[in-house]
Amino acid sequence: MYKLIQFVFISMLFCIPSLASADTAIISANDLIVNQMSSNAFKIVDVRTPEEFAAGHIKGAINIPYDQIEAQSAKLETLKSDTLVVYCRSGRRASIFEGILQKRGFKLKHLEGDYLAWKAAQLPLISDN
What total of structural domains would you count in the chain? Predict the structure, then answer.
C-alpha cells in the first residue's frame, strides 16, 4: 500500500508543470477559426522555436519562443491589450509561457490540443520553407 501511495505522489509531481496554465481558458480549433474571421480577432502566439515555426505554423501566428519572454518583452507589451491564443507542439512550453504571462496580467487562451491536434485535423498551416 505504501508503494502505491508513493507512486501516486511521485506521479502527481510530474503533473505540476502542466498545472501552470490551469487558469487559462481553452479554445477549440473551430472556435479559433471562427474568431479569426471576426472583427475582433485574437492574436495567436506560437511559443515553439523559430525552426519549428518556420516548418509550419497557424496563419497569422506570431513567434515568441517560450524561453525568450524577457528578450521579447517590448513586443509582448504591444500585445497586452489583446487576447492571446497560445500554443506550442504539445502544451508543455505553452503552459510555462502562460504561467508567466498570467502573473503579468495578460488575457490568455490556450489552443486545445496545440500544434499536434491542429496538424492531425489537417487544418491549414503556413510554412516558411
Answer: 1
Supply the DSSP symbol for 57. B
CB 125 within 8 A of CB 56: yes
CATH number of the domain that residue 89 is part of = 3.40.250.10
Q: Whose CA is closest to 53, among 42, 64, 69, 41?
A: 64
Structure confidence by residue, pLDDT tens digits, 18-41: 444 558 999 999 999 999 999 999
What residues are annotated to the active site? Answer: 88
Its domain, for residue 71, covers 20-120
Distance CA 72, CA 77 (A): 9
45: in domain: yes
The structure's pTM equals: 0.82
Which amino acid belongs to residue 89?
Answer: R
Beta carbons of 114 and 96 less than 8 angstroms apart: no
Which residues, including other chains, have CB under 8 Å from residue 85's CB and lie 6 or more apart? 27, 32, 42, 43, 44, 45, 108, 109, 110, 111
